[in-house]
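Please, structure for the following, as tokens.
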Amino acid sequence: MRSNTMASPPTVGLPPHRFGRFARTGVVATVAAAMAFTTIATLPAVADEQPAWQDEVLGTGETSLQPEVVAGTFGNVTNAEALTAGGSGSATLTWDGAGLAPYVILDYGPVVGGLPYFTIDSSSGDVGVRTAYSESLKYVIRMNASQLVKPAAAGAETVYVTNTTQMTVGQSLLIGSGDEQETATIVAIGLPAVTTTSFAPIAAGATNVEVTTTNNFPVGAELLIGTGAAQQSVTITAVGRTSSQTTLAADAAAGSTNIKVASTAGRQVGDVLTVGGESVTVTSVGTAGAAGTGLDVTALAANHPATTPVVFNGSGLSFTPAVTAAFDAGTTLRNPRTGVTVSPLTKAHTTDSPVTSSPGNVVGDNAGYLGTGVGSPRNRVTQVSGAATYTTQANALQGGIRFHAVTLTTPGTVSISEVGVVSKFPNRGPEDYAGWFLSSDEVLNDIWYTGAYTVDTNMVPTGAQNNSTFPVILDGAKRDRRIWAGDLFNAGRTTYTAFGYGENGSDYIRNSIGVLGSRQAANGSVPGESANWTSVPAVAQFYSTAYSIYFPVGLVDNYRYTGDLDFASSQYGRLKAQMNYNLGLTNADGLIVTTSGSDGRD
């Protein structure tokens, strides 16, 4: 293993007297000392003309990114290769509106991010074009994954399944597994099965079952009790009330005619409840919780502590004929409903046999929890009409794009000459690396350069995000797209090592730390994350004590590596206030004590 390093790394630190006047402030003095006297043992490597290591770098320096290969097509698609880098001409997609629309899936190789776009050469009038994105092929194209809820005989033209998500008329359904698997074509899509569970055991010979919900279990419907070979089919003859359980929210004394409960949902006057083994009748329904008005009941005969179970046994579902075997509490109960109409089956399939649709639908994944900008969905539909380039709005950056799918949503024909992403991350090429790594183990090489590239994709240069006036680094290119204090510490060392000090590297970390520090609370705590650094003031929240503590940790580390005296000095007052806040949380053993709930989040 080798790396290119500076021969004589300098000593970097603040002069001791700069912080001498704080020597008696306990923890603050300790942290200040760490800032003042740290010596860098090894600086980031300096990039050299090393073709071997340069071949490992994933970034290219390009701002307009094209897919490398076609990952797959379906339906009436011609010349899909035109949409890859180096391709020529146009790809054409045509759909008559029957069955599943055609699509092409494109692969960028490494994951990229920015503003997706496509260029239409021509179209047959107004045509809907959907594009979708994901870092994973299985999420850009979604297939149904379900199972049979009841047996399907050879010759059957209806299958009853747990869900119909992502099913489309004309798709193939793969039913069963191994030698018993077969393919059928979807003719029509009805309703999937609905499920409830038995609240109590079901005895052999029973014609009633207590259930947790009666929604979508009407009189006359088929009721499937159990799964697999033990499953029995009966018909619902009456629908009653559901059973439920809550707990006492406070102690209840013998003789009491009021009980505090965790939930009053579903309770009615006249309900008979079992409280710790004794029965009481509800005379009035109030509010839940230890401070709520609770339930008025007939007098208790015994004392019952908080958390004692409070059970209501509803009348459930009645059915015919009687079951011939016993079933445990928690047994799965289903109404199969109308199912899916398919071409005639050639084989018999048992309950619980797997069912999968093919090919999948162009959907894209779910980003969620986005910070700055708008939460642009991972797929969008654009109505196209004639030649034009269609781009993503500037504040709807998409990260985590490896696979880019294109399909039609309305019948017609479109010719597409280009699909790509306008890069909004630095996309550093070898010439931008301040350090490099190379070993005889290609796995280690991949780990190092993938890590560096991941940090690269998390960087947001000035102007890349709407209204951004300085560069920052986020916790993820796809989500959360926020500045997180804990993530900065780890990203910082990778940034210093791979991209060095200054505008290509450490400035991203410095600015991000500064954003969090700028929103310090009056009690001294620094926010753990910022959802929007482009607003004035920045939008930020505390999140947790652990993340707040990362502010001084990241600040000290930034100074250790960069020697940026001006920035360290500008943040020192904030560091002291944060450390004093931490001291205020310590117990007699010197350990920080967090409050219950979310404050303990790491």
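The chain has eight helices and 35 strands. The CA atoms of residues 285 and 404 lie 55 Å apart.
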